[in-house]
Amino acid sequence: MMSNDIVGRLLGGDRRALARVVTLIENNAPDARSILAELHAHGGKAHVVGMTGSPGAGKSTLVTQLSRELRRRDQRIGIVAVDPSSPFTGGALLGDRIRMQELAGDPNVFIRSMASRGSLGGLAAATRDVVRALDAGGFDTIIIETVGAGQAEVEIVRAAQTVVVVTVPGMGDDIQAIKAGILEIADVFVVNKADRPGADQTVAELRMLMSLDAERKEKPWRVPIVKTSAASGQGVPELADKLAAHLKSLRETGQLASRSGQQARSEMLALLNQALQERIAATVSPEEWDRLIEDVVNRDRDPYTAAEIIARRIGMV
Amino acid sequence: MMSNDIVGRLLGGDRRALARVVTLIENNAPDARSILAELHAHGGKAHVVGMTGSPGAGKSTLVTQLSRELRRRDQRIGIVAVDPSSPFTGGALLGDRIRMQELAGDPNVFIRSMASRGSLGGLAAATRDVVRALDAGGFDTIIIETVGAGQAEVEIVRAAQTVVVVTVPGMGDDIQAIKAGILEIADVFVVNKADRPGADQTVAELRMLMSLDAERKEKPWRVPIVKTSAASGQGVPELADKLAAHLKSLRETGQLASRSGQQARSEMLALLNQALQERIAATVSPEEWDRLIEDVVNRDRDPYTAAEIIARRIGMV
Lengths: 317, 317
Description:
By secondary structure, chain A is of the alpha/beta class.
């Protein structure tokens, strides 16, 4: 009843209903799941863009500029800023949010920050659910922005249809780091702060790295490298064009469906793993856990046998 | 029978038996688990050291120098070099292995490289198992060396008792990146290539970062920052001393047991998640999976309900 009400209001564009649902998701409230199940049926219209890259690459300013450009194109924008690193980096995150403040007054822009809650799986799931709510709420483009560029960020932006990797000139070792896992997920590269010296060299290095990636050559989409200056706004309209072009390419090549399929599969596996953990918590007492772990640590029992005992207790063997 | 034989030979110090077990682990062979279960009872004597840090920080050269120093202290050394990034970085890994070549002739040093196999969980599990085999094989220090410093590397080095984070002077943005998840896991910091300008500044920055970490202040172990030059070997004996001091501190404060307990818990949860995936694969046909995923993508069904259907099918609800 109350759930139907909030769903109806959210679908009708009510910001307070949306904010309330996002809070329910963040608090992992029991109500959240039935609401999200209803909302799922009304989604699939938004373009979900993931934005990742090293700290200091100017992602927040770029997101702000991109949002302004998309607003000029009359889109409604949702921004989910995710920080999977320790609570320790809270300061930097706060600074970024202040930079986005200028968007906060616009009723057609919805911004929400999500900090780490200890579990990467939990954060990735909550991010997916917030995107689901924004999608049902009729936002045209939803930007998932991450703070860093680690494995955690990669996992989070995988929920996007278009992944933008942001770098800046003169990050030699950064390009090295980009190789490790990030290159493969990029649909669009941005060299931000392109007014700095070395921008063209960074573009050349990226092109060279991509030319080494044999798998990429098989793909219909040629990853563009866009030079931007988030401070002046230079290159931002081109970035917006490339994002739209990528979505179009995904649609035309049938890749949108296959990407959605992979994402649904990952989400279901994550939900099942979560169900496993809940089942363990409900079936095996903390004392029993502690006893088994003590046995493993003391080498009275091996971890494989100990895990099998738990698997039996929860009926999984 | 054959399994008993190989276990006996490995425990007796036979290198070929050890190499064979490591290969069984890498191939995820059905025999591997019963062998490892036996080996677990004979472990717990080695000092497991994890070494992580940015690409280009000179970790491989440092591992080589550290191993020489520990050999001078009459230790037997196992080295597990792990690359959780894409197969794309295979070249760099190969270069590193060549640098370690000088150790390869020593019968008291065992080196094995492990590359990504698509699944981070699989790689982390295989690394744990190789460490288990080396531990049972009587190696005094086992070094887990990772290629990069991302979330994947963090997960892998969590299997260690002592985590060393390696950085080099002049990585301003690197220090930024260190904040995100790596700072918390460091038991020892190394500023390598300390003959370069800016080493003292990097040390000062690290000290400042650590002073911001309130949790650290509660802990009995004060994380040392060791300046090394892996090329000349300078600072390496001090690093070896600090590693030994950290192990001693873990023992004296009872933290060795609590750390082992946390590691056993993580390993069991990982084993249970793996069992879940195997159970799904054995119970749910690929066609049934595909149908459910199609329903979710087409929004005829929500992912929570779809996951629940699978959970019911495998008897988990």
